Amino acid sequence: MSRFPDDNPLPEKAPLLSWRARMHEVIFEADTPAGKAFDVLLIVCILGSVLAVMLDSVKSIRLAYGPLLTTVEWIFTVLFTIEYLLRLFSVGKPLKYAGSFFGIVDLLAVIPTYLSLVLPGTHYLLVIRVLRILRIFRILKLVQYLSEARMLMQALRSSGRKITVFLFAVLTMVIIFGSLMYMIEGEAAGFTSIPRSIYWAIVTLTTVGYGDISPQTNFGQVVASVVMVLGYGIIAVPTGIVTVEMGQAFRKKGVSTQSCQECSADGHDPDAVHCKYCGSKL
Amino acid sequence: MSRFPDDNPLPEKAPLLSWRARMHEVIFEADTPAGKAFDVLLIVCILGSVLAVMLDSVKSIRLAYGPLLTTVEWIFTVLFTIEYLLRLFSVGKPLKYAGSFFGIVDLLAVIPTYLSLVLPGTHYLLVIRVLRILRIFRILKLVQYLSEARMLMQALRSSGRKITVFLFAVLTMVIIFGSLMYMIEGEAAGFTSIPRSIYWAIVTLTTVGYGDISPQTNFGQVVASVVMVLGYGIIAVPTGIVTVEMGQAFRKKGVSTQSCQECSADGHDPDAVHCKYCGSKL
Amino acid sequence: MSRFPDDNPLPEKAPLLSWRARMHEVIFEADTPAGKAFDVLLIVCILGSVLAVMLDSVKSIRLAYGPLLTTVEWIFTVLFTIEYLLRLFSVGKPLKYAGSFFGIVDLLAVIPTYLSLVLPGTHYLLVIRVLRILRIFRILKLVQYLSEARMLMQALRSSGRKITVFLFAVLTMVIIFGSLMYMIEGEAAGFTSIPRSIYWAIVTLTTVGYGDISPQTNFGQVVASVVMVLGYGIIAVPTGIVTVEMGQAFRKKGVSTQSCQECSADGHDPDAVHCKYCGSKL
Amino acid sequence: MSRFPDDNPLPEKAPLLSWRARMHEVIFEADTPAGKAFDVLLIVCILGSVLAVMLDSVKSIRLAYGPLLTTVEWIFTVLFTIEYLLRLFSVGKPLKYAGSFFGIVDLLAVIPTYLSLVLPGTHYLLVIRVLRILRIFRILKLVQYLSEARMLMQALRSSGRKITVFLFAVLTMVIIFGSLMYMIEGEAAGFTSIPRSIYWAIVTLTTVGYGDISPQTNFGQVVASVVMVLGYGIIAVPTGIVTVEMGQAFRKKGVSTQSCQECSADGHDPDAVHCKYCGSKL
């Protein structure tokens, strides 16, 4: 397992690791038994705390087990606080960690509970606590699923611009059709304003179709039919884009792992005989 | 037709088959006239019994034809019991069969009816009887559709990890958006708890859109629009994954593994007789 | 334009065509000015008659313009009857035509109106009249869109077996999940019988989501969520199958048009240097 | 940045540009600082004016800020009028511009407001004002997203015929199934006429599923299930078409057209320096 950029710079096989380096190995890595045990424990805590937040939102459960859930919440908060401090301490550059994506998520996992002591209206802080679920991805980062995730992300990123153009076209269609339906149907059918009609157009174009607003007039139903068929058809566009990009992203992996002995370039086709950059034989 | 792993080890063309081997051939295989007739009969019985269970659940039919349906049910149960015992008897290793997937399904096909004699509340046993439909796949296993099914399964299995990563991302999105909507909309609009809001998020993201819960506030509709467009767009991800994997699974079958003896080029079409690069005979 | 199998066997450039052959050319073909004019007229009549049937079903229009619509209907019926008789007469083998798919559709286009004279209850004959729309495909057969349609049909036909396996799996899932929901939700939530619950499962798995039946209990919503995510995900399977098959069907067209000078085989890859069947240079 | 066909024919680096040419450069192009600033300003104005139209349609906002919105509307209208006149003036052939797609859109952006002075019923003019959003594409035309948009358009255009055949088949299915359901369900379930039943068929086939009309009889639900599974399955067709066409459109861009001077092999990656088959310099 290769080390990550935020890893401690000490060599892995050094006979004597400082206890700070060893702590880093346990907390940030997953290739030692202690590191794996820590990860499993962390996953259990994260899922447990998210489950507690969910249950706390169900009225009947909150009324019956309110105090218990508050206790559980505090236990998890204290655990996550200790973990956050240990991470800050064991990492080489604490400030860089604190400002990174996962550093902020780790902080957001504990702050709301403390804030609820001083601020009323914990209701809005509830959702921030749900963001703890994002911490799961920290463990994902360490395991074998990383390469699949990276491949998917790569395909999505390389199709990003085309998707943007597509979303732009969808937005324009939705605004025009929404306004059209506002004019055709009017307030009686629930198309009370252009923004609301645009909401209807999105519900219809994406084939969700709640049915809370639906056209009543004949002409409105004709226009709605056009929007539906359009939405049904143009889903082919993002699907086509992503499929083609994935085909290329996966093929690149199917690419030879050989690297040129002369210029050490890689990414050669499996059928290449010579390096395509310097021409020397592979 | 190739033999399956659980086949009787006797050679197929042995002049004298023991009656147990012959019974095995009829029950477990499909390449003799008797075996085919048995399979057709079995399909008829399976479909008939599942149909009987379905009809039995319709109140008006149960009131009118209750006793008839009970009789039919018992006939099928006795037939399936005999079949199960014959399978146990004719197979080489009865215990291994009894513990296999189809062994358990075969047992579950008969047990609920006997249990209904001693236990009240057959209601819950009803569904187990529907599992008989799974027995259809036993026949599928023996016929020509096997290779298509295997190809599909292979494509799905090789895309399993990427699909897992995708499902993981979907789960995270659904939890976060569900919690967000719980906070925004509140109880008035039906978002009574986070689990229920997550249910709404799944209904919306998968573009099912029942409309039993739908956002009422302006901001809620904006967030819902984001979830819809997201769901509409990211369906491209599993589609792309499966398409690419299928392309590879089908291509593997489609390309001959032969390589030219002269220039050792490969990638020849299955029907190629000569190397397409140097012209020498394959 | 190549001639079709049911064409008159007379050579196209014969200086003297019998009037029967000339009639055949006008009615069955599209490569003469008269033939094109006939086709355009036919399309107008077909669309007009289907439109008349549709308008006739709208109560307010039927009350206001009933007699007019009946007159229009009889005019179209007489025209189609004449056309049918002319087709019967001009074709080489009248019985073969009468028994062909389009022969039956042509007959069904006129019979209902005559039947309405003797039989009461034209209501059920109405829909048969709508089948006239299928006659449009007769014209499609003659024009340039044919090759695209043939290519699509070829891709669908070659993926037919895999699609069958997929539909089989969907059917099984729908039966099992439907029965499960019948057990979980019961009659209160609208799951009044297994067939009706299977209908719900189809509505949900295909992401249609009417919302006329929707789960009310917590556990029912969990199972429904599984069905939704499943339906959302497995749409990748038919899409993948058809995409891959289309890729192959279109690529075959993209295949080199070169044919071997020795063995006159074609279908060579664009990069082939030698004929892959006989080895001679292309 | 290449110039567009409607560009002024003066060379870009001419030391002295007439002020008309310079104005053209600012208004129609995006490769000078002034041109970019103009584009950004224009985008702000377009989005601002569309937002004003939207807000004006919300009753509560109109009642509270009506006069303000009218003032804003007039400011944007005057700005767009000045811009339109400047475009007319600075372009080489004003009439050709006025008759072009964007020329008409530019005119439609200002006319409704002036018409509202003389005509009552601005309600219907509202939607025309929303068409201003199309002017955004004018800016898109000038920026880097152009090539992605062009690639998407190319893939869609080359799949246009196949999509047409598909839409034709969908239309036929929808008419036949709609009529069938009108016959089966009748007026009680909301299937009051064939056009309305066709609307239902479109809602169902495209998996939108509002639920405002849904089958009530058993046979109607069976037919509806067939329509749903059909709609769920045949979405694979447009997706397959577009994916394959995109694969070809992207591949064309993706492969260098260079061929090796030694062995004249081609299909090299765009970044290849040496032939991957023989190693000679490209």
Give a brief rundown of this model.
Chain A is mainly alpha-helical and 282 residues long. Chain A has helices at residues 19-28, 33-57, 59-90, 94-99, 101-108, 111-118, 123-130, 136-140, 146-158, 160-185, 194-205, 218-234, 236-253.
Describe the structure.
Four copies of one chain form a homotetramer. The first copy, chain A, has 282 residues and is mainly alpha-helical. Chain A has two domains: 10-141, Up-down Bundle (Four Helix Bundle (Hemerythrin (Met), subunit A)), CATH 1.20.120; 158-249, Helix Hairpins, CATH 1.10.287. Chain A contains 13 helices and no strands. Chain A has helices spanning 19-28, 33-57, 59-90, 94-99, 101-108, 111-118, 123-130, 136-140, 146-158, 160-185, 194-205, 218-234, 236-253. In chain A, α1 packs antiparallel against α3 and α10 packs antiparallel against α12 (218-234). The radius of gyration of chain A is 27 Å and the shape is flat. Chain A starts with 18 loop residues before the first helix and ends in a 29-residue tail after the last helix. The model of chain A is unreliable at 1-15 (pLDDT under 50). Chains in contact: A-B, A-C, A-D, B-C, B-D, C-D. Chains A and D meet through α10, α11, α12 and α13 of A and α2, α7, α8, α9 and α10 of D.
